[in-house]
Write a structure and sequence with these properties.
This protein is 47% helix and 12% strand. The chain is an alpha+beta fold. The chain folds into 2 domains: 89 residues, Phosphorylase Kinase, domain 1; 220 residues, Alpha-Beta Complex (Aminoglycoside 3'-phosphotransferase, Chain: A, domain 2). The strands form 3 sheets. Strands 1-2-3-5-4 form a 5-stranded antiparallel β-sheet, sandwiched between helices. Strands 6-9 form a two-stranded antiparallel sheet. Strand 4 and strand 5 form a beta hairpin.
Length: 320
């Protein structure tokens, strides 16, 4: 239990006092790589969480806005019981311990659960996306790739202008293979720590969603590759192919162009992740995520075997 008020932001202290919650009933949950903090609150009327986004106020407002859209479209997201928009504090429903990261561990029915998560993505791709989201376009994708250069390839080294130019040209060519205008709602962090299985609910609502505040409008393959090439767990390459084909067989998409986008955006995502984990280590002295780097590289090297990515593979080998 977290009884030490020193660990709690001033905004949250005021919120707790205003709402007459007892500090001794707050339990801080393990946080992700963001500045948000989550607390489980034992309370009479509901299982609830407090989300403290006081350091990311816009993030809390994005969560509120997208939560309304997802609820309206019949998806399971946490009910919001109370909010302080000015300070970025939310009281939300607690989905409990049925995260995919908990239930998939040594579970022989993994494919069953992944199919359910994929069914949601297929359903989501058929919905008209909300108009208030920004585009996950080439500029955003290129900006994300800079993290890999700054905190891994060229960290504490002199940048090579020729290498940088070559890097940009390689990615410009790769992104030209993808029709980013053909977009849907991309949750962006669709992985086993952000997906719940709510067995008492029906159909698509069995899948519970959290951590969707960074959503954008992007290619529909992005969340699928986030799920199947999740660096926190490992799905065999055989099962990855099976589940990718499961999506394709149930969707009205061009198989060839979708697979190409899946490969390119999946590779961009893995490279970004390597950059982010190294940034956490080098900038914040947070080594928590380094344990996932071998798996990330394994997935990346698997992707780099594809001839489409040959120039990128050579560049990484020459500069790594």
């Amino acid at each position: 239990m977290n009884k030490d008020k020193k660990n709690i932001s001033n905004s949250l202290k005021k919120f707790i006092d205003k709402n007459n919650f007892q500090i001794e009933y707050l339990i801080e949950l393990k946080s992700d790589a963001s500045n948000r903090k989550y607390y489980r609150l034992k309370h009479d009327y509901n299982k609830i969480l407090i989300m403290d986004s006081s350091l990311e106020i816009q993030s809390a407002n994005n969560f509120l806005k997208l939560s309304r859209w997802l609820l309206k479209n019949n998806y399971s997201v946490p009910n919001i019981f109370k909010s302080d928009k000015i300070n970025g504090i939310l009281i939300i429903e607690d989905f409990g311990e049925s995260k995919f990261s908990n239930i998939l561990n040594n579970n022989k029915s993994k494919v069953f659960y992944y199919k359910k998560a994929i069914d949601l993505l297929i359903d989501l791709s058929n919905k008209k996306p909300p108009s208030f989201l920004n585009q996950y376009n080439k500029n955003v994708l290129m900006k994300e790739l800079k993290i890999f250069l700054e905190y891994y390839i060229f960290y504490k080294k002199k940048k090579k202008n020729n290498s940088l130019l070559e890097w940009r040209n390689i990615w410009k060519k790769l992104f030209n293979f993808i029709n980013l205008e053909d977009s849907c709602l991309v949750l962006r962090d669709y992985h086993i720590d952000n997906i719940f299985y709510l067995k008492k609910r029906s159909k698509i609502k069995k899948i519970g969603l959290i951590d969707f505040q960074d959503a954008l409008l992007g290619h529909c393959c992005y969340d699928l590759v986030s799920l199947l090439q999740d660096v926190r767990t490992f799905i065999s390459f055989k099962d990855q192919d099976f589940l990718l084909n499961y999506y394709l067989n149930k969707s009205d998409v061009c198989t060839e162009s979708f697979k190409r986008a899946y490969l390119i955006l999946g590779t961009q995502r893995l490279i970004k992740i390597i950059g982010i984990f190294n940034r956490l280590k080098n900038k914040k002295q947070n080594k928590t995520y380094l344990k996932y780097l071998p798996r990330t590289w394994k997935l990346l090297n698997y992707n780099l075997k594809n001839p489409i990515l040959n120039e990128l593979k050579i560049w990484i080998n020459n500069n790594n």
